[in-house]
Specification:
The complex is a heterotetramer, with two copies of chain A (304 residues) and two copies of chain B (263 residues).
Chain A: H1 7-14, E1 19-24, H2 34-42, E2 47-52, H3 58-65, E3 69-74, H4 86-94, E4 98-101, H5 104-116, E5 121-122, H6 132-135, E6 140-144, E7 151-155, E8 162-170, E9 176-177, H7 185-191, E10 194-202, H8 205-208, E11 215-217, E12 224-227, H9 245-254, H10 258-270, H11 274-288, H12 294-298
Parallel strand pairs in A: 1-2, 1-8, 2-3, 3-4, 8-10, 10-12
Antiparallel strand pairs in A: 5-7, 6-7, 8-9, 9-11
Helix pairs in contact in A: 1-2, 2-3, 3-4, 5-7
Chain B: E1 3-4, E2 11-12, H1 13-23, E3 30-33, H2 38-49, E4 56-59, E5 64-67, E6 84-87, H3 90-96, E7 105-108, E8 112-114, E9 119-120, E10 123-124, E11 132-133, E12 148-152, E13 161-162, H4 177-183, E14 190-194, E15 198-202, E16 209-214, H5 220-225, H6 245-254
Parallel strand pairs in B: 3-4, 3-7, 7-12, 8-13, 12-14
Antiparallel strand pairs in B: 1-2, 5-6, 8-9, 10-11, 14-15, 15-16
Helix pairs in contact in B: 1-2, 2-6
Classes of the chains: A alpha/beta (304), B alpha/beta (263).
């Protein structure tokens, strides 16, 4: 049974307007599922809560800039060495964006708990000495360790309604290869009710099963497979292309205020189809493509 | 571009910071670094190539162990970092971050850093209506568990070095000796702060920050003025040793992208 | 710094007589670290508690047959389709072997908790309807889920003092490649204070780093690397050789009573050095070696 | 060797069991099996190759998904099983076993199975001094969470089918309707029991085991005598349909090792 859908169909079918908790994959400027993010913006689907990996970047920032996010659960949104995330920052400073303050360990262990049907997860000592549990009582609490009698910090399970994820390759059933770092994307796939997967390339099941140990997302977790070559641009797609530093700088330049951010959204998202967007980016994408250096060779069995 | 050049050697402040961090690393260390970590990444590689060949170093984004990469890249999540001795998953590294007995060094920083080494990457001002919203704390709560915390920042001024952090997102010595002892945390707490002006340690009695060395060309009064709390200043403050020719040579072979150059 | 030790040195140095909790890797008849197990028997090191993967086999059975185990924490010891584990069974029926009754989910999540410094782990609903928590109050308990107010089952973290593990390859620093299924071996490595790793082959760091994505045990977790080609025999070594059905049947034939089991231990373990044992097995090992079928080709990048 | 051969087809009881299990599988199922699972492994492959091509099946030892293997191997941990569509880790599969919404079928068994489908793989007799110590429960507690439990056993006798299990290690319908409802477990409970003599279901009112079909050549009284509790026996009991020529042909192409042959 093929799960292959076009980008507009997949978002239309699986991301209802006003959807509850959406998790968006990728970390920092890598493997952000930007084709899915752009399509959510084009279809103007409001998201009650957005959950990022421990480090969100353009994936969260653009959805915020488009005014679609009520509340964000995250431990970081930014552009690493390039700069802060302007719409995220302005939204919180202005009070228009609510935040569930998280830390990396909670997001990771919370997804583990969500994936495994664990009622909650006990956290390692330390978080209770920060101000984080004080400002996020929805995700953090305390209970008794029955083995020692101590009060210990615990986190609520994270169970997204929808996950927007990127992988390198998948077959039509959704069996997928993650070519580089997995970040927390696999746990998002395990923990989420509905998984939308954009990939650089759809291949046959026969092809994907040549590398069973690299094919780590099983199709039964996936609800829609979208072929989106270049779909992480301007972020990196591990195994395919690097992130585009100058495109990020261009965004940061435009997004200095809300109007500028909206201008970027119009110019680069809503005024264009995904295909038109990628046609404009095609030349840059070629320049950013990984060559045949040692890593490309070492990881060549991950490639199509 | 602030180049220190009062000797035959010429080096940037960022290069000096990397060298100072590197010198604090031991042969049996297992280090972790996070976001935007060019300086500690170079510090670890430099240590491996000089006095600490067996040091293990984890790039917090990709979670590769001992990346072989030269030139060093600015993003901790880069695909190229996967060229390494070993690959862990992020989940593995988060697990290990629960254990002070395995990971011995974490490189930290903050929008605000207070006199006890507490860090804040979350919000400056009132949390509900912050004057400056930071990116978020990522893994900083782990500071309370790791063996040794090495803090570095490229901003040495009174907005960064404050009496009390507005939001505690990375625990240092908490509110000082009694709270630190009461917490009985597994980690050893912050050991070093490196800035473009100086290196600082912590007074073993009061657990407050104490000036250790000033970088070449920097005056003690300049450091005092740039620090928003009362820094402990011993009577005699040595000048931070200049990087050796060997250190600079190794470092620059790693940093052909020039990430630390001229900064 | 090389961690390479001879088999006798590694056991002598890191497995003290009367050691607390020892975890032994491998699952069913696969990747049992038999060279380490045999050496522990030769050196007659008593183990207070032995922890198996969810399915222990010859790894646990031989240590029990040798009379070295006071108590075992396990969810299964047996020989799958071949038969029950006779010494395990007799020990418990006779009361000479104590057992901490566990289930697969607890062993897995408990190692996760041990690996991550989590004070305990909340378990998914269900275990409380079995008799297991009633007979193992040391590992299972109950506490309040502060998010719902429910009483939920929880498990204590598993933190072995020593792990005896097998991997396919390692370098001298202990960076190691697991060639086939990982079972819970990687979590044992993460959760244990001291890790002894036997491998089919020691290779250079340069060689091992050719496949960074397959090298998933970092050297800093490992305390001793032992080159033990054939060291899983008569169990399978994934990537190297199949298990020896007839050798297991031979064991089961001899171990029908305690004297018979002791006879096996003398004949196949204590009367021989590891080298002498493997010389006797050499011909069978050659027959059991994986050929060059489709899997061998698909996984060839894992091979030396 | 118990071969059923009262027709033009000749098949073993194990082959019939595999076919019966296979028929209960749906195209949208995600199945998991554990230890010594040749029968369910073949049932799943057979379903995939006949009426349920999209079924996903997880081999509980290696945790590979949809192993391509022919011939089928007896050990669930076999390296050859890694030739498959996808590889999960054991940890992943244990996580998924916490979720009734993802995994829909688990194949279970026991040293003892009681009238409510509760299973015991731990100990027969007093737990502290068991008459028979079983291997252990492995993943059986998961029975309470999975969508549908399909039980199979190659021993149909009064030692296996008992009034009450001596040790409950795999929850069926617990102590019957009221305890089952009070537990409000996420799983749907046991649906089917296949033995060398018959297939059994569960009465929706009492949740007690009920005879459904007897295998060719087996008498109802034979089943009654071999069952240690009062089995619900409807007035009319059909004979289990014989495997079709197509089913047997597919099955035997998978089982060239003859794991089910003659048993």
């Amino acid at each position: 049974m093929s799960k292959v859908l076009s980008l507009p169909e997949a978002v239309d079918r699986f991301v209802p307007d006003g959807v509850g908790l959406v998790s968006v994959g990728g970390m920092h400027l890598h493997n952000n599922p930007m084709a899915l993010v752009r399509e959510v913006i084009r279809q103007n689907r409001r998201i009650k809560r957005l959950l990022t990996s421990p480090c969100g970047a353009l994936n969260a920032e653009l959805l915020i800039a488009a005014g679609l996010i009520d509340e964000i659960a995250t431990s970081y949104v930014g552009f690493e060495h390039i700069g802060l995330a302007p719409s995220f920052r302005r939204g919180i400073e202005a009070g228009s964006l609510k935040i569930l303050e998280c830390d990396e360990a909670y997001i990771t262990h919370g997804l583990y708990a969500g994936a495994g049907g664990l009622p909650f997860v006990a956290l390692p000592k330390g978080i209770e000495f920060t101000d984080i549990p004080k400002v996020n009582k929805e995700n953090y609490s305390f209970t008794t360790d029955p083995f020692t009698g101590d009060e210990v910090p615990v986190g609520a399970p994270l169970k997204p309604d929808v996950a927007l994820l990127h992988a390198y390759q998948a077959d039509a059933q959704g069996n997928a290869v993650v070519a580089g770092a997995h970040f927390v994307d696999r746990y998002m796939a395990l923990a989420s009710k509905t998984v939308l997967l954009q990939v650089e390339q759809i291949v046959s099941t026969k092809e994907i099963s040549k590398h069973p140990q690299g094919t780590t997302i099983p199709g039964f977790l996936v609800h829609a497979v979208i072929e989106a070559p270049g779909g992480c641009y301007p972020t990196a797609s591990h195994g395919a292309y690097e992130f585009d530093h100058q495109a990020i700088v261009e965004y940061l330049g435009m997004a200095k205020d809300d109007d500028g951010a909206k201008g970027y959204i119009s110019k680069f998202v809503t005024d264009l189809s995904e295909q038109e967007y990628l046609e404009k980016a095609a030349e840059r994408l070629e320049e950013l493509r990984y060559g045949s250096g040692p890593l490309a060779v070492a990881l060549s069995d991950r490639k199509g | 571009m602030t180049v220190i050049s009062d000797s035959s050697l010429t080096f940037s402040r960022s290069e000096l910071m990397a060298v100072e961090l590197s010198k604090r690393l031991r042969n049996d260390d297992v280090t972790v670094m996070g976001t935007a970590s060019a300086i500690p990444q170079i510090a670890c590689r430099l240590a491996q190539l000089t006095h600490a060949p067996d040091l293990f170093s984890i790039a917090g984004g990709t979670c590769s162990v001992n990346p072989h990469l030269a030139p060093v890249v600015p993003s901790c999540g880069d695909y190229d970092l996967l060229r390494a001795d070993t690959s862990l998953s992020l989940n593995d590294v988060v697990l290990l971050e629960g254990r002070a007995d395995v990971l011995t060094v974490f490189f930290a920083g903050g929008l605000q850093i207070d006199q006890y080494g507490n860090c804040n990457l979350v919000a400056v001002g009132d949390y509900s209506h912050p004057a400056l919203r930071g990116p978020g704390t990522v893994g900083l709560p782990f500071l309370s568990r790791v063996g040794r915390v090495l803090i570095y920042t490229q901003s040495h001024n009174a907005r960064t070095f404050v009496e009390h952090v507005d939001f505690l997102s990375g625990p240092g010595f908490l509110q000082g000796p009694s709270s630190w002892q009461a917490a009985s945390l597994p980690g050893g707490g912050p050991q070093l702060v490196v800035t473009p002006l100086c290196t600082m340690g912590f007074d073993p009695e009061t657990l407050r920050m104490r000036l250790e060395t000033v970088h070449p060309g920097v005056e003690v009064d300049q450091v005092r003025a740039a620090t928003g709390f009362e820094l402990i200043i011993p009577s005699s403050i040595p000048v931070t040793p200049e990087p050796t020719a060997e250190q600079l040579s190794v470092l620059r072979k790693l940093d052909t992208n020039g990430l630390l150059k001229g900064k």
